[in-house]
Amino acid sequence: MTQRDTAAADDDRPFGLLQLWDAVADAVPERECIVQGERRLTWAQVQDRTTRLGWFLAGHGYGVRPGVTQEWRSPNDLVGLLLRNSPEYLEGSIGSYRARCAPFNVNHRYRADELAYLLRDARPSAVIHHREFGPVLAEALALVPDLRPALVHVEDASGVEPLPGSVPYEEALAAATPPVEPVVPSPDDVHVLYTGGTTGMPKGVIWRLRELAGSPTGIRVESLEAAGRDAPRRGWLRAFPAPPLMHGAAAWFSYGAWSRGGTLVLGEDTSFDADRALALCRAEKVTWMAIIGDPFAQPLLRALGAGAEPPTRMSYVFSSGASLSPSAWSELDHFFPGLTLVNTLGSSETGPQALQTSSTQTGFRAGPTTYVVSDDHTSLLGADKPGTGWLSNSGELPRGYLNDEDRTAATFRVVEGRRVSVSGDRASVDDSGEIRFLGRESTVINSGGEKVYGEEVENVLRSLPEIDDALVLGRPSERWGNEVVALLVATGAELTRDDVRARCADRLAGYKLPKALAYVPAIRRHENGKADYDWARTALAEIDSAASTGGRPA
User: Fold this and answer.
1) pTM of this prediction?
2) Which of 222, 309, 401, 406 is the most buried (most CB within 10 A)?
3) 73-126 pLDDT, tens digit each
4) Domain 444-545 is in which class?
5) CATH 2.60.120.560 at 10-270, yes or no
């Protein structure tokens, strides 16, 4: 690896996301800021509404936590966002920043047990939620009896009764008054991004707003003055994040567009409908779009191939979170001549590490702050010291993992005087300094942009009395990038796939349930008890010839 310039010190940027967006709002107050259906909110309106939300949170006594110095602690009270894509999701983040609170994403697909784990870990002071999620939130809170967050509900068409004591979102804004002591947000306030991670359970990654106003979100604004000066000429920028905003890639893409003075166009995140997405892009003159690799690209291409009209203003597509096949890339180039398409590799803990900018590019190209750390975490590999190690990133990085001192120390290290985030991916570097990405060391399955940890699913499967043993893997899927499949050992009668999914549905989110399964006489393991994944992959290849409701590999 060739020597790279050290990234500028974090403190060199004297502003964070909030100060940046306020500069944009002051420059283009009447420009549309968030659009969803008939709802049209200008930058000035969003600035006013988020100010009121900040007053509401501050009025409850939430905000900065004095004296917090450990990197694995949040210096700010936390606010959970249990919301579908909506203006309130974005306002929830900004309003939290204004009160010096830390918003965090909540996967609205979680069941009660999964949600309870997240609440127990984050200990939120408040939870903003759509009414439809009230029942699962109530069930989860009952499992954490010592937690009593303030509840704010956003109206929807679900017809679900509000939870007792929950305050309607619009009423909270309307009744809010300025605090006696003005709140002065700091660029060192934080945002917590929860991810499935590599340990099987969600972990909160603590990002300072100072860092998020830079390379992790693709923001390249030199100063607040530059942001205010440049925003007026970018009225053409209308960005559509197709994935749920609860995923970091979609949120960070949105933040990058906002920093340039753009308008965010929101659709629905109940499920991705390619025809509906293309119609939205045409109607709203969308110029930028974020997708999750092939799970989104393939349906788009099928719709276009069937005669759907391509949006004529589309100039940039950002893909992250799942692989994007060369064939999909070429077809997108065909339907959108002159399209700039960027496919990124990264994680919640590292930010972007590598990218592809052409279908002819073989593999990912390492970013300027990407490194390979030796297996013993003592040195940086490079042209003068080639080998295989851990993929890592430097530059603008998170503080650490929320409430996890050990994992923070294990992941965020100082190697040869450089602070790096060591991911769970393996990589090699040759004597020319070229980095090759080898893949994740753990058993994480990335299915449609969602991370599924095999061990979690295996534990649930093994709890069924009909299942003696289980091994969960991912296999390539055109629709999902990868899909969850299971090898099972039965205690007697074999459950069908549908039986297994139904029996586990109350404990696992739908995307974690096996889409296919097969029975084997035994799970082959090494002497140390770990599964023999080479054997498992051979058995897995034979699942394709078995019935989707259960079969037996030869």
Assistant:
1) 0.83
2) 401
3) 999 999 999 999 999 999 999 999 999 999 999 999 899 999 999 999 999 999
4) alpha beta
5) no
